[in-house]
Amino acid sequence: MPFQDKTSSSRLLASFRRMVLPLLAVFCMQFPVYAYAQANPVPSIGDDARTALTPIQEYKLGRYIMIQIEQDPAYVKDDVLNEYLFVLGNKLIAADPTIRGELVNDFTFFGIKDRTLNAFALPGGFIGVHTGLILATETESELASVLSHEIGHVSQRHIARMMASSQKDILIPIASAALGLLAAAAGGGTDAALGTLLAGQGLAIQKQINFTRDAEKEADRVGFQILKRAGFDVNDMAAFFQKMQHATRLYHDAPSQYLRTHPLTSDRIADAEARALHEPYRQHADSADFQLIRAKARVIQRDMTGGLYEAEKFFAEQVKKGTRYQVAAGYYGLALIALQRKDPILAQLRLNEARKIFSDTVNRQSIALNVLAVQIAMEKGKPGDAFKITRDAIDHFPSSRAMSNLHIEALSKGHRYDECLRFLRKMKQRYPEDASLRKKTAEIYAGMGKKGLMHLSMAEYYHLLQANEMALEQLNLARREKDTTFYEHSLIDVYEREWKAEIKEAKK
Ligand SMILES: [Zn+2]
Description:
By secondary structure, the chain is mainly α. The protein has helices at 5-30, 33-39, 55-70, 79-94, 131-136, 140-155, 158-186, 191-202, 204-208, 213-229, 235-251, 257-261, 266-277, 288-305, 309-321, 324-340, 344-357, 360-365, 367-379, 383-396, 401-413, 417-430, 435-448, 451-464, 468-480, 486-507; strands spanning 108-112, 119-122, 126-130. It folds into 3 domains: 31-277, no CATH class; 287-380, no CATH class; 382-449, Serine Threonine Protein Phosphatase 5, Tetratricopeptide repeat, CATH 1.25.40.
């Protein structure tokens, strides 16, 4: 069966070496700005980024790095956490659509399982946030201030500008760091080894993206405006800066990767304070999901650093003496732990405790609570119950990926294959670049015993991961199956021509 990620990772690695390193070399040589950069070795912050990297090139590069990161065990595969970051990030962006600047795509927000306080922006609007940073924030405005700062880097096209100034140097470390990430994924990556890798090499991607002091100040200034327009408490930007500086003093440089990539100077803190001073005080009420997501981040992180016992102890305390939302988050955290320990009955009891604290509206609207309810039903071995919740929830949360993915799972576990394929088709139209939807489709075909279609979907999956040679192998397998129809044979031919041309292009 083709669903073996470990072996495919090492083959992906090989195809990455073969295809992407030359591609990056091409990137380095082809930018017309190269001559410009030579003549102007230190471009000022006001230089035109368009000469360096077109928004489409920037997106493609970011997308490629992202494919590597998604294979990394540190990438948070939790739909609920990533969706929360996405919703919060888009709330900030929506307050001022000009912030998108020349970006050709939507922003992407994702979590990284890492205890250090860090967040980073990759080329093309991909913004990563460490779980450690989420846990260090005490208000939603603090977390929003970090996201705003990163959105500021993207909107001012700092990466493209930086490439204009040092373009030859920058892509090589990015490429080797992406390779390092992939190598860890291929090797299975024990937690300890992964920690070393992330500190030393893997997250070199963002370490290489060392913005200048001026770029940092610009991101602060733009970030502040974003935070203000979206209605968050602007005082929390300086407050969180101070918290990070304090953390640095306590632990020396261990938890402060953020400071290495976003050098925090006392004048940056002073600037943020001065800006807030001129604004009328506005309190921002945290969303119910903010505390729930922090509980989730704690469970995800503990899962990596050994045992859930510490997290359980923490939640037990929180339930005793937190604010109303913190108490609810404590019960939610205990429910998550119970579910991880395969005790859906206890998980259900804990979830009920959490729900009692929230209003009916919150209970209806919280993605975190509703997703957990579905997951508990699945763990109880009741896909029918899970399906009932997801079917209603899909209408309620039409743009929720977390809920859509669960709906697919509920349909698949309940053997409602035709319905599942129809829903998958709709999702593929909406998210044409999402490789996981192709893989899911392949799994459904496997369940139905349709091997030709299964291989065809796997071919599309590998193609989206830019592993074209593996995609071609799957096409050959699809061609050999007896159930492949005339229509599929012609589709296979079309794919084969296109993908071979792409391989040829990459080799050039
Ligand atoms: Zn920064």
